[in-house]
Amino acid sequence: MTEEKIKLSTQNLNLWFGNKHVLKNINAAFAENKVTALIGPSGCGKSTLLRSFNRMHDLTPDARIEGKLFLESLDLYDKNISVTQVRKRIGMVFQKANPFPKSIYDNINYGLKINDIPQGDRKGIVENALKESYLWEEVKDELNKPATRLSGGQQQRLCIARTVALRPEIILMDEPCSALDPISTLKIEDLIHSLKDKYTIVIVTHNMQQAQRVSDKTIFMYLGDIIEEADTAELFNNPQKELTQNYISGHFG
Amino acid sequence: MNTRVRERYDAVFKLLFKTTGMLVIAVLGGIFLMLVWNTVAFFIKVSPVDFITGTQWNPSGSQASYGILPLVVSTTLVTIGAMLIAIPLGIGTAAFISEYAGKRLKNFLKPAVEMLAAIPSVAIGFLGIVVVGPGIAALTGQPNGLNALNGAVLLAVMALPTIVTIAEDAINAVPASYREASYGVGANRWQTLVFVTIPAAAPGIIAAIMLGVGRAIGETMTVLMATGNVSAFPKGFFHSVRTITATIAIEMGEVPYQTTHYFALFAIAAVLFLMTLAANLAGEYFVNRFRKYHAA
Fold first, then answer.
1. Cβ within 8 Å of A, B 168-207
2. B168 is in which domain, residue-wise?
3. What is the distance in angstroms between the Cα of B292 and the nearest Cα belonging to chain A?
């Protein structure tokens, strides 16, 4: 992966929750405008790694981080950096769709308001974000409806719309389809394909078919270590490590 | 134990709980009927229009007058004053305990606030007479501080533990995923609290406020001691007032049985009941409006 531009990277990243060593000396790189999948059995640290990029662990009192994380050349944990700016540039879609208990419109408008986007521009941005998330046709007549009335798949697409509305450079997705039915999952995967042109996407998934369908690169993690990383087709068809082979063929996990 | 006996147990307990439940309803209904009965007796002697529009409460004068307006205005004044103080303070404290305070501070603050509720109302009234009242008098240059503001401050103190405790529970119960979503789009703590967490906790917070209002409207001893009990029409926060509750407490002991004055006290009690009922219904309405946006 030398020819691509590296958007996101870690350097000797270690993370502890209390005494538990969750990420062990991680050195990873994520290429621009690619979808990178993080796979591995439960508890391997893939979600933890994902959440360290937009500094979600800041909210966990007993989390301790050593090492460096970079957005291009920007040190994400530098003391002089505003964490809210980091989170604006690195958006996140969570495992369980978590729309705010507000209307559909306000769900997207909230982020715009928070980030001081002029009032006059907001309406267009909301519409655009909904279109980009393939949700516009379904909700355009009921933007004032409570978001919680939408179906699970629609809610998740709304959460994606909420994220892309801020034009982040990176979108982190933490098992975005784990609570959805197959049709909703398909829609989200289509969406991921179309977002790739504009954004760098990192997606955590338990579903190996999904990783093969949506990602360009795959990183396999196990017990806090990166075991193997490669182009997705390469990793699934020709894994170099026995552990990878065992995991992708379903021997454990 | 054979099945027969077990089923018998079930039947017995079902009956027992049904009885206790019915008993509560019966007591409530009884109180309500007594209020209505005596109120009707009062309205046979005094016209409801005079009662509602009369601006003077003077049951023992040579020309007895039963205007409830000054009492209602007094109660409203003290209650609104108390809420103006207690609502921002209560929600602020609840938000601080739940979102900002460290673990140790939280473990100290929450019980401390709850302890406030254990102070008897007489003690708070006493505080009003010797500390808060004179303080208000000194600050505003008045001869004494036994006025509506004094009552409002004391009632605010009394309503705070309820408001803080219930509001804090409500804020705490907001799912972490809402906060994460808010932080995820770049919001800071303050924005998350004001625009996401508090609105999401609104049903609980409104319930907390309504319970606080209920406490303030119905509280007797403190306002009796601290607000001066002048039955002249109240002119503002710096004047003495006489609430509905204080009026009933003062006069009920001295009034002859089944006179017009006796029935009049039931009538104003019925009005008090309607006021608390209205506060509760309003609270219920707002709770439902916010609930619309929550997942079923």
1. 175, 177-188, 191, 195-196, 199-200
2. 58-291
3. 7
Mode of pairing for the β-strands spanning A20-26 and A6-17: antiparallel
Interface pTM, i.e. ipTM: 0.88
Which residues of chain A have a CB within 8 Å of the CB of B103?
A: 61
Domains defined along chain A, listed by start: 6-248 (3.40.50.300)
Q: Would the CB atoms of B184 and A163 count as touching at under 8 Å? A: yes
User: Phi and psi of B41, rounded to 5°?
Assistant: -60, -35
Residue B159 in contact with residue B215, Cβ under 8 Å?
A: yes
Q: At A220, give phi and psi (nearest 5°).
A: -100, 125
Whole-angstrom distance, CA of residue B76 vs CA of residue B125: 19
Element (H or E) spanning B65, and its range? strand B65-66
Q: What is the pLDDT of residues B196-254, one digit of tens each?
A: 999 999 999 999 999 899 889 999 999 999 999 988 899 889 999 999 999 999 999 99
Contact at CB, A100 and B200, closer than 8 angstroms: yes
Output the CA torsion sign for A223, A225, A231, A236.
negative
Q: Smallest CA–CA separation between A98 and chain B, in Å?
A: 6
Q: What are the pLDDT digits (tens) for B100-144?
A: 998 899 999 999 999 998 999 999 999 999 999 999 999 998 888
**What is the four-CA torsion angle of A19, A23, A24, A27, rounded to 10 degrees?**
-150
CB-CB under 8 Å, A115 with B184:
no
Per residue in A139-163, is it b (16+ CB within 10 Å) or e — as a string?
A: beeebeebbbbbeebbbbbbbbbbb
Q: Is A161 helix (H, G, I), strand (E, B) or coil?
A: helix
Q: Do B259 and B228 lie in a common domain?
A: yes
Q: With respect to residue B69, please indicate whether it lies within any of the assigned structural domains.
A: yes
With 0.90 as the threshold, say if the pTM is over it: no
- What is the count of structural domains for chain B? 2
Q: State whether B17 and B116 are in the same domain.
A: no
Put simply, the answer to whether B184 touches A59 (Cβ < 8 Å) is no
* Average pLDDT over all residues of chain B: 92
- Phi and psi at residue A161, in whole multiples of 5°? -60, -40
Claim to verify: residue B40 and residue B64 sit in the same structural domain: no
- CA gap A40, A47 in Å, rounded: 10
Same domain? For B12 and B104 the reply is no
